[in-house]
Amino acid sequence: MKITLFTSNKLRHNYLINLFSNICEELFVVQETKPVPGNYSRSNNIKKYFENVNKAQEKIFGNARINNNNDNIKALPMLWGDLSKCKFKILEDFLKSDIYIVFGSSYIQGDLLNYLCDKKTINIHMGVSPYYRGTDCNFWALYDNNPHLVGATIHFLSKGLDSGPILYHALSNLKTNTFEYTMSTVKSAFYSLCKRIEDNSIFKIQAIQQDKAKEVRYSKKIEFDERIVENFFKKNIDLNSKKFDLSLLKDPYFLE
């Protein structure tokens, strides 16, 4: 099997690359280098927030580097945001796979988006759709006191943001602190997807359309500001305040 992955360059992205390289014959990786800590301003609370994110990432994924001993990995590095500027000729060798996956890439648009949608590309959205869509979804689920809606949605890529048909949800029972909890749902998404690709069950799942009437919040990057993050740190978030409601989820996979 050949897999193409569109992703970024943080520890969690490298971890996913290594996982996929172990379950396929050839892995084609388009890897964008993302600025640190993203496009957010470096206010004191936001710095503190991303310091906690990085600590949780290191604890959950370790100091992950791409395993160069796996000679089945073919990588195409590029700067953040350059993906949609690429001509098909440049990506030609990366567009002949059996399955395509997007996790943490920049916004894909134009002919490349059309091609990937036609190929039923799978997107890993960090947030439980249709309830939370947009950016920083798991942050907002915690902010809204909805810890039971922290997780990932494995769905088909679509022309609308996070709006493609849902295959399943991935969540975590590792409720230690808020940052490790959200980061562990990333790991849940990785392991569940690798497992279901390896046993071919991913191709047999019946996807369901998203019900936009169930949307709790559609968040935008600009909303994640100093005041909101300050309020977040002041909250006494109880990760066990609400139990998982399986009726809200599609074929959930839980990381124990």
Q: What is the element layout, followed by pairings?
A:
Elements lengths: L1 E6 L3 H11 L4 E8 L10 H18 L11 E7 L8 H4 L7 E4 L7 H9 L3 E4 L6 E3 L2 H7 L8 E5 L9 E7 L5 H21 L18 E3 L6 H9 L18 E3 L1
Parallel strand pairs: 1-2, 1-4, 2-3, 4-5, 6-9, 8-10
Antiparallel strand pairs: 5-7, 7-8
Count, helices: 7
Low-confidence stretches: none
Coarse shape: globular
Give the oligomer, counting copies of the same chain as homo and different chains as hetero.
single chain
Ends: how far apart? Answer: 29 Å
Strand order of the largest sheet: 3-2-1-4-5-7-8-10
Order of helices and strands: EHEHEHEHEEHEEHEHE
Strand count, sense and barrel status of the largest sheet are: 8 strands, mixed
Helix content: 25-40%
Structural class: alpha/beta
What is this entry, summarized?
With 256 residues, the protein is α/β, with parallel strands linked by helices. The protein contains 7 helices and 10 strands.
Describe this structure in words.
The protein is an alpha/beta fold. 31% of the residues lie in helices and 20% in strands. α1 runs parallel beside α6. The two termini are 29 Å apart.
Keywords:
10 strands; alpha/beta; 256 residues; globular; 8-stranded mixed β-sheet; two-stranded parallel ribbon; 31% helix
